[in-house]
Amino acid sequence: MAPSPQTIGEFSVLPISIPPVPSFPRNVVHYLYVRRNAPKIPTANDSRSLFLANVPVDSTELHLRALFASLVGAGRFESASFEDERKEAEAVAAALDAAPAQAVRLLAAHGKKRKREDQEAAERAEEEAAARLPSTWSRPLRKSGSTAVVLLADEKSVQQVLKAIAKVHKSKKYPTWGGDGNIVAERVPQLGSVWLKAHNQLSYPDRDQLQAAVDAFSTMFARREREAAEIAKRLRNEPDEDGFVTVTRGGRSAPASTKEAEEAKKKMIEKAEKKKQEMTDFYRFQMRERKKAEQEELVKRFAEDRQKLDAMRQKRGKFVPEA
């Protein structure tokens, strides 16, 4: 078997030894690709974080903690965020922030941000946690080839991890997934039939728990909607950086909205008439019928003119001049 390359592009290749399981009693080598984290939008923690690609499907934060502890020792690993968890968090945040979206745009247009203290941020996090529905899985599984971002203690720890990966290729002693003696397996829920049984039980959560989550979400949504209306109302008469005041459409009686509705209705009628005219001569039989109707109209008008002319001749023939 050819040796695995140490690097592929910007990534360092980290071979991982996955111990056998009853369903597949063979040792397997999995390749994890590691590089410095360089997102499109830089953050303050990029210098002390690593980007991981092709994480195993059963990855958890405990697995990655044990993996990095085997490479550089304990105390270097701080946290890990997986791709699917980030997308789920962004989707929940988008749903919760749907109400004040207009207010956020107004604030961004005016170049101002609302200052929040740490206590308010903590309360908001608690409200969002209470508004989430309970999970139906005791342990999530990752998609094949998914990614993760690992946050380490400092920038020096990032350099040590990359050096340790290079040493792994020289020593051929691959770190074991789950730690030596598979310590992590004792601290995370099992997979297989136990995992599916737990899913069946969690699929029917307590009714009071569901109702509490729905009530918390409704309360939060209504409150943020009121905040959005208040912010939008306050920003109507607030000048921006250049000293201009944003002119909003309509007033208290909303005359602009009524006028726009009438204009829209007028445009719709004109559009319907134009479409009707365009469809008049669309088919050949319509053109034949139109020409036939025009010909009949000409014949009718000719007959009427002829009758008028005959009447005028008769009237002129009866005329007798005076002597």
UniProtKB/TrEMBL annotation:
Gene Ontology cellular-component terms listed: CURI complex; UTP-C complex
Domain of life of the native organism: Eukaryota
Region annotation (Disordered) ranges: 110-138, 241-263
Chain intervals with Basic and acidic residues compositional bias: 116-130
Annotated ranges, domain Ribosomal RNA-processing protein 7 C-terminal: 202-321
Residues spanning the membrane: none
Biological processes, Gene Ontology terms: ribosomal small subunit assembly; rRNA processing
InterPro entries with a match to the protein in the record: RRM_Rrp7 (IPR040447), RRP7 (IPR040446), RRP7_C (IPR024326)
Domain Rrp7 RRM-like N-terminal: 10-179
PANTHER family (UniProt xref): RIBOSOMAL RNA PROCESSING PROTEIN 7-RELATED (PTHR13191), RIBOSOMAL RNA-PROCESSING PROTEIN 7 HOMOLOG A-RELATED (PTHR13191:SF0)
Homology family: Belongs to the RRP7 family.
Protein name (Swiss-Prot/TrEMBL): Ribosomal RNA-processing protein 7-domain-containing protein
